[in-house]
Amino acid sequence: MMKLYKLLSFSFLIATLTSCTFTENIYINDNGTGKFSVDMDGSSLMAMAGDQMSEQMGADAKKNIDTTFTFKQLFEQKKDSIVKLSPEAQKELKKLENFVVNSKMNAEKKEFLMTLSTDFKNVNELQDILQTISTLQKLEGGAGANPLGSNFADNGSKLNYTYDGKKFSRKAVIDQQKLAAKAKDTAADMSKMIFASSNYILKYHFPKKIKKVSNPAALFSEDRKTITIQYSFTDYMENPDKLNFDVEFEK
Description:
Strand content: 25-35%
Distance between the termini: 51 Å
Structural class: alpha+beta
Radius of gyration: 18 Å
Low-confidence stretches: 142-150
């Protein structure tokens, strides 16, 4: 089987080479616990990857893959590289330990799917998983595997979730200094071109009926307990606060 780090690096290579759909799912239970996941669909690359994919993955490109592993297992493989990172970067990676990664690749069906998921006791525990992944890419070989550099998906913001049974909030606070530095990145133009054809979808499931949502683009499920909001990935990267919204629930 392909080494875990090689598989994860290739998954994010797919994300940067073609249009992808990222779906951020949150399932909240009555007691505030729940499950968080980010699903990445890179199947469009499978239809046109051809020789390029074979060069990246070698013999593994010809195999069907359906594998599940934890970041904790991955970090064990890369422990020698992790100790070379700054204390801040190591702390960021620590947040990923309980995440489970499931990857499926089927060349015949032109399918490539990856899910990063974890359970939580409170939504306040959650952070922006894609930004944290950008820290992972700083490990040996990570930046080289990514044509957009080691800061892919780092949108220069701090994301917070809150839920108290009456209201839910998703709020990204922008770090203007980091955003300005990213704007000067030499890969910025290439990034914009790729991100323009990718989507970032929020799909949140609540235990109560929703009274109102501050974002007028929100779509409701029939039972009004789930909302779906679709953005361009450009918004996620360049205007992360555009994805902010509040939800109020019926009593």
